[in-house]
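About this split. The held-out portion is used to measure sequence recovery: a designer receives only the structure tokens and must propose an amino acid at every position. Recovery is the fraction of positions where the proposal matches the reference. Here is one held-out target exactly as it appears in the evaluation file.
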């Protein structure tokens, strides 16, 4: 067979030994075994849970600041009572009618003890103010200007406990957040289970290939893809089971959380009524203690009473005043805790 007497040479494939290629592909799932819808639900519930957790943290922070606020007021009122005691005992010690030396010594001892109480109360004020400033992010040495009255919703104490319990179970962010996390885990479990099912997808693509050999440079394709992972060593099944168990555990904690919140509401409601009863009783005790101190001093000045009676009457007055101040502040604080318990803070 005769062959041509020349060498065959092909033409250049690429211009100047360079070429440009680019492609884009798109895949549209037609059936993914429920992975996509379950994944969307899981993300949605996770977002709700995070939002509710944020609200619960904000409410807890508000109560924490309120407790620090009340602690400052409590310390300041204790200091005022201690200063009042020092002033009263100092006046009694300087009374010229204190003839017996034993009375003078007893009054001076009582005054020294009152001075120690005042010093401790002043230190407690500084500590309480520093803690309050720390929660607000203010300089610790700042002396804040606070209203003596604590803003609290007193109408909650008049509501029946059953209504408050229902309100708490419906509105507490902790319950909503934990329920959302349980739903998110359940949806993630369904998404993992979907990996065991067949997958069907519509695929398309476009490619540009710069060349001189082929009769065109643009290529496109459309197709339907089918995949089914028949064996993965049990990974998807085990992950789905673990997420399902985690969801069940979250639901179990949810029941315990509801019971805990019910206890919190009931305790706060009872503490409000206890504090209100103490306020009424202590206000009468303050008036009686003041009158008792006045009468005791008059009797002592007339020689009909003893120095011990005067000192005891002064102690009774200070104790009655401290009890009343604590009862008033406890009522305000318990109302705030009730607001927090029912989800209204």
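Reference sequence for scoring:
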């Amino acid at each position: 067979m005769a062959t041509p007497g020349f060498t065959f040479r092909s033409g250049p494939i690429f211009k100047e030994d360079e070429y440009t290629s680019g492609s884009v592909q798109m895949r549209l799932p037609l059936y993914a075994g429920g992975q996509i819808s379950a994944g969307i639900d899981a993300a949605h519930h996770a977002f709700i849970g995070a939002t509710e957790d944020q609200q619960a943290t904000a409410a807890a922070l508000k109560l924490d600041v309120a407790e620090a606020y009340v602690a400052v007021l409590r310390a300041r009122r204790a200091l005022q009572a201690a200063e009042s005691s020092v002033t009263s005992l100092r006046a009694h010690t300087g009374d010229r009618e204190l003839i017996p030396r034993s009375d003078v010594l007893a009054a001076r001892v009582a005054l020294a003890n009152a001075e120690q109480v005042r010093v401790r109360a002043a230190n407690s004020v500084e500590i309480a103010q520093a803690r309050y400033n720390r929660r607000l992010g203010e300089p610790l040495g700042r002396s804040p200007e606070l209203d003596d009255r604590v803003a609290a919703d007193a109408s909650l104490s008049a509501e029946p406990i059953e209504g408050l319990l229902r309100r708490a179970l419906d509105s507490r962010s902790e319950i909503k957040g934990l329920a959302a996390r349980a739903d998110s885990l359940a949806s993630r479990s369904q998404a993992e289970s979907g990996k065991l099912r067949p997958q069907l997808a519509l695929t398309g693509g476009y490619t540009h290939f710069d060349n001189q050999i082929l009769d065109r440079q643009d290529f496109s394709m459309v197709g339907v893809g089918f995949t089914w992972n028949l064996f993965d060593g049990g990974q998807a099944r085990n992950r789905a089971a673990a997420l399902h168990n985690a969801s069940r555990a979250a639901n179990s904690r949810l029941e315990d959380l509801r019971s805990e919140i019910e206890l919190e509401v009931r305790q706060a409601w009872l503490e409000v009524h206890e504090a209100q009863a103490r306020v009424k009783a202590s206000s009468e005790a303050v008036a009686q203690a003041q009158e008792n101190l006045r009468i005791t001093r008059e009797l002592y000045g007339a020689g009909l009473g003893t120095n011990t009676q005067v000192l005891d009457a002064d102690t009774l007055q200070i104790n009655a005043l401290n009890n009343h101040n604590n009862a008033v502040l406890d009522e305000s604080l318990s109302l705030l805790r009730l607001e927090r318990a029912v989800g209204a803070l």
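Annotator remark: The longest strand covers residues 21-31.
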